[in-house]
Amino acid sequence: MSNNPALRLLLLLLLLITPAQQLLAHAVTSGDKGYIQEITGQHLIPFMYLGAKHMVTGYDHILFLFGVVFFLYRLKDIALYVSLFAIGHSVTMLLGVYFSIGINSYLIDAIIGLSVVYKSLDNLGAFKRWFGVQPDTRLATLAFGLCHGFGLSSKIIDYDIAPDGLVANLLAFNIGVELGQLLALCAILIAMGVWRKSTGFWQQAYQVNVVVMTLGFILFGYQMTGYFIS
Questions:
Q1: DSSP character for 197?
Q2: How far apart, in whole angstroms, are the C-alpha atoms of residue 37 and residue 10?
Q3: How far apart are CA 6 and CA 12, in angstroms?
Q4: What pLDDT score does 10 carry?
Q5: Stated pTM of the model
Q6: CB contact burial 185-198 (16+ within 10 A = b; e otherwise)
Q7: Which parts of the chain have pLDDT scores under 50?
């Protein structure tokens, strides 16, 4: 296989979006769905596992997180942006489920697809060139984190978790999400660290961000198609 990271990433992302039903971001497997619907009371460890599994397999989260840390080199900057993202999706996930704030899952997932597009364009410097203004990336990361959290909550609401032990289970699920995010982040940072040492990084960085942006548009298109035909 080619040593070009852009080509490898393109092949990987094409695998992720085939078949089409896998594009339903934040989906829970049928087995997990049945488990969630049947249990009552506090089940902290299982919900932590489900949260971690959900994040690690949530490729829209991973794509956005990848874009966020793409040009971050200092650990304190990475910690700041990842924390803003985590705060955003934690708040709306917990409050959305607790207060049953339902948002159409197709629409919120379409917005999440656009968040991937936004971050890729930001990495490419498009907003500065087009409009002469650089958006506040910290505020944008927090705002899209809020959207990602509603993506999580919209799916959880659909599975009607028992009210007995709800708060504890939601907190455990969210802890699992954060643990899964840390695992994904470590893998991304290790890969980025190796890639950045290569001589072709800056040229390939443009290609990879174009690929990720394209995937964001594809995610958006599939979700909007699902919304109109559902």
A1: T
A2: 37
A3: 10
A4: 55
A5: 0.85
A6: beebeeebeeeeee
A7: 1, 19-25
Q: Kindly state the tokens that stand for 36.
A: 């969630």
Count other C-beta atoms under 10 Å from residue 105's C-beta.
23
* Gap between the Cα atoms of 151 and 59, Å rounded: 13
- For residue 228, what are its two tokens? 């109109």
pLDDT of 230 reads 79
Q: What amino acid is encoded at 123 in this protein? A: N
Determine the pLDDT at residue 101. Answer: 84
SS (H, E, C) 80-149: HHHHHHHHHHHHHHHHHHHCCCCCCHHHHHHHHHHHHHHHHHHHCCHHHHHHCCCCCHHHHHHHHHHHHH
8 Å CB contact between 205 and 6 = no
